[in-house]
Specification:
single chain; alpha+beta; Immunoglobulin-like; 10-stranded mixed beta sheet; 27 strands; 29% strand; Pherophorin domain-containing protein
């Protein structure tokens, strides 16, 4: 019995006592290292995109020529790897001054190291005291294209020491005898992001009554559509973006742009041919050439310029990781097309008069704006009158200096939706309301008579339709494209009646 109790106590003691660590060395490089060596990587590593990272080798022999490591070579470099790195799905290649190393880099688990330790080894380097300034690079990639668990950057590859920035690599530089060895920390540095942008510029020609100007709502709509299309293509081709840059948009009065950054020029090049095709297709789409009227009313008289390039001030743009220009890549007859509506199917106005734009000095702003009506159930849709340069100021129409009346193309079958007409010459404090006035049935004409405005009263004056708030202008105004109404301005002779479109921006952009 006594022997049984003794055996039990001994066994219990072994169970209760902590097991000793099997690791011979607790810290990288997991072997004895610390004798000075001539080799180091001073400064930072450089990232060149596409998973390539480089460091410049510095050779500084000890001042004491009798030092045992004064003439040491550099046989291998070992790097401490993040235990979370999926080394099985990570490919590493190495070059010295652009030439692949004699032996490919490899991952291994060092003997005598704590559990989970992994080291990347570059060996048989064949470097010596004459290799000062050599460029040593590694390129990281995934065995499975597009894999998210591969270690394709230094942040995921290297085990940074406590307190160091992510991506800091700890390397051991070792000679052939394994006696001369030094630990070197290399901090990451990346070149500044290289921005690539898409630019959209509606350029007015003399045929434009007023230049197209982006406001914040138009800018957001345009750039949202552009970014959606480009983001989808980036995802489709698997192009890698620079994680330091959040895509953004800008708008001046005449140029909308969307910008982002690729991780390397090679990633941007994945979209190059697609981008060239896109600017050709969008050249027509942007002006509404594929619609029944061949032109969006708010772009009449404009040419559309589209460019992929670097970040800059339009049109002086640097090259980017994508370069495409509709002016160059589209056929000449398409690149130079001017937004000109096909009005052959318009049946308005019913009267015979000169409807040519710029026939007189009276025109209209391209946007209609909405305001509350006199009742909670009504809304004012307001035209803003402009004074322009008549195309021939010496002609009978061009000499006109009075805006006698206005007429608007509307569906007279929806007369009940029009609750009133309001006018306000420039300088007046308030709107003046009138009862609705229509032409004969079938004329499809809303009349705004007896204005008799001078150019001073007309420039900035407003003519408003008070409509039921649920009215769809594509139905009420008969043009049936882009929430647009057409208005013409008559002189006293009624022989001159230039015709212009104006679009409800609230309805066009979804309020």
């Amino acid at each position: 019995m006594k022997h049984a109790i003794t055996a039990l106590l001994i066994a219990t003691a072994f169970v209760a006592a902590p097991l000793p660590s099997t690791a011979q060395y607790e810290k990288f490089p997991f072997f004895k290292c610390g004798v000075p060596t001539p080799y180091s990587f001073p400064g930072s590593s450089a990232s060149f995109g596409n998973g390539t990272f480089c460091g410049t080798l510095a050779v500084t022999p000890p001042k004491n020529a009798s030092d045992p490591c004064a003439k040491a070579d550099l046989r291998k470099i070992e790097v401490n790897i993040n235990p979370a790195c999926d080394v099985k799905n990570t490919i590493v290649k190495a070059t010295i001054n652009g030439v692949p190393t004699a032996v490919s880099p490899s991952f291994f688990v060092p003997a005598g190291a704590p559990e989970g330790s992994v080291v990347l080894r570059l060996t048989q380097l064949g470097l010596g005291l004459g290799n000062d300034g050599d460029n040593i690079c590694i390129t990281l990639s995934a065995k499975t294209p597009g894999a998210t668990n591969a270690c394709t950057n230094l942040e995921s590859l290297c085990q940074a020491p406590p307190g160091a920035a992510p991506g800091t690599c700890v390397a051991a530089l070792v000679d052939t005898t394994l006696r001369c060895c030094a630990i070197n920390e290399v901090s990451p540095v990346r070149p500044p992001p290289r921005l690539t942008c898409f630019y959209l510029h509606p350029r007015p020609t003399p045929a434009a009554s007023t230049p197209f100007i982006f406001n914040s709502r138009e800018c957001k709509r345009a750039t949202d559509d552009i970014r959606y299309t480009i983001d989808n293509q980036i995802a489709a081709v698997g192009a890698e973006l620079d994680d330091r840059v959040t895509p953004f948009h800008n708008c001046s009065e005449s140029v909308a742009s969307v910008c982002w950054a690729f991780s390397s020029p090679a990633e941007g090049a994945k979209l190059q041919e697609w981008a060239k095709d896109l600017v050709v297709r969008w050249q027509l789409d942007a002006i509404g050439f594929l619609t029944e009227f061949k032109c969006y009313p708010w772009l009449i008289g404009h040419q559309i310029e589209m460019v992929f390039a670097g970040y800059g001030t339009y049109p002086n743009l640097p090259r980017g990781d994508i370069n495409a220009n509709a002016t160059q890549d589209a056929p000449p007859e398409q690149a130079n097309i001017i937004c000109t509506p096909d009005l052959s199917k318009m049946t308005y106005p019913k009267c015979t008069c000169n409807t040519t734009t710029f026939a007189t000095q009276f025109g209209v702003q391209k946007w209609m704006y909405t305001y509350p009506g006199r009742k909670p159930t009504t809304t004012l849709f307001c035209f803003t009158v402009l004074v322009l340069n008549a195309s021939d100021p010496t002609s009978p129409c061009g000499r006109t200096d009075k805006l006698f009346k206005a007429e608007i193309w509307g569906d007279d079958k929806q007369r009940q939706k029009l609750k009133g007409i309001a006018v306000q010459p420039a300088g007046a404090k308030n709107l003046t309301y009138r009862s609705p006035s229509w032409g004969a049935p079938g004329d499809q004409t809303i009349k705004v008579s007896q204005l008799n405005w001078t150019p001073q009263q007309a420039d900035g004056g407003r003519i408003c339709l008070e409509l039921e708030s649920n009215t769809d202008l594509d139905s009420f105004c008969l043009f049936k494209l882009g929430k647009t109404c057409w208005i013409n301005f008559f002189d006293e002779s009624l022989a001159c009646c230039p015709l212009y479109p104006s679009t409800s921006i609230e309805q066009l952009l979804g309020n």
